Amino acid sequence: MENMIDIICFFEDLFLEYGMNAVLAQYLNLLINIVALTFIVFAINYVVKHFVIEAISAFTNRTKTTIDDFLIKSNFPRYIGRFVPIYIVYELFPLIFIDFPKILEFFFYTMKIYIIILVVWICRSVLRSTRNYLKTRSEFNDKPLESFSQIIMIFLWIIGLMFMFSVITGKSVIGFAISLGAASAVILLIFKDTILGLVASIQVSVNDIVRIGDWITFQKFGADGTVTEINLATVRVQNWDNTYTTIPTYSLISDSFQNWRGMQESPGRRIKRSVFIKQNSVKFLGPEDIAKLKKIQLIAPYLENRQSEIDKYNETNNIDKSVLINGRNQTNLGIFRKYADSYLQDHSAIHKEMYLIVRHLAPTPNGIPLEILCFSRDKRWENFEYISADIFDHLIAAIPYFDLQLFEAPSGDDIRNFLSERSNLLINQK
Length: 430
What we know:
Helices cover 60% and strands 11% of the residues. The chain has helices spanning 2-8, 10-17, 22-62, 67-73, 76-81, 83-96, 101-135, 145-169, 173-182, 184-190, 192-206, 251-254, 261-265, 287-293, 300-316, 332-346, 381-398, 412-429; strands at residues 215-218, 223-230, 234-239, 244-248, 258-259, 269-277, 357-360, 368-376. Helix 2 (10-17) packs antiparallel against helix 3 (22-62), helix 6 (83-96) packs antiparallel against helix 7 (101-135) and helix 7 (101-135) packs antiparallel against helix 8 (145-169). The mean pLDDT is 81.
């Protein structure tokens, strides 16, 4: 230590020997030492940055693991390397400014605060590297790693601020916590959105409300697509038209939205659509009609057995079949409903172990809704739409074979043709 002080005071002693004023000699010596210290710090920093860190980077490029590559990208070695010049400054600066206690006091405060910030930066670097590494693992693809890392960083900065407060004021960390509690109302007001986002992120993660990759529909924000990012304040959704919608994280627990994950994880995707049948096209079927429909292979066995039961019942109960309404009868709508059910049972793309229902709902002004409810095996959107279209193409084309009619609201051409026919009819009558 004495040798180091002698080196630092070398120029001051030299100037004094040549008869220079003591104060001037002291300040010139101080200036020379500051320049020398600055040069030493920059030289060491240059060596660490361009040789040591580059060597570490070259070494990590040859390793099989990827975590070290992410550490390099997040400047972890560079932050660690800063401790070398910090140590040099921390040791030499007090010797240079030994006669300036006020400057030394400010220096120690500044160095302690910088070291705290540097430690937080190192923790942030490790956290980012860990997050980016986990993103490469398939088991973490659907986890909100961005949100987790932001929550941890908030706590790290709070701890760092507590220690900085302790350094500046000389009070303990507990004293800072007490001061923080007293100012909690103001803090809650200023950081309201951040606190709400923090609470929401924790609830979303713990309750598994949304994962990255989930398809969600959030009508309030116009979102309909895949979740690509979950962070502390927002959830980013890529819509099906490739636009992006940003949703406040807190809205996921305060508002209602639709998550399609259950459908994606289930064995099939639901098809639920209706065709509307004109009510006046529904009728009882006579023997000729039944014979005609028996040519349809899918329902021929059903018609044979069903008609045999009906005939037996009518004969047993001496039903007068000269009037078709008497006794038991089959209707064209009932047989078409059975045909639709048989068609779906025979369709290779329909999941037979899930619900499969063909039913008609309460009549409406647009006719009788005949609803198809089943599940396709293929859940991919484009294939699902192809399967649905294929089913309804067939059923709509099959309806006329059962003497049924689809309801369709009259168009302008229909009205125009009706008026034209009515006009021609009146002319012919005259």
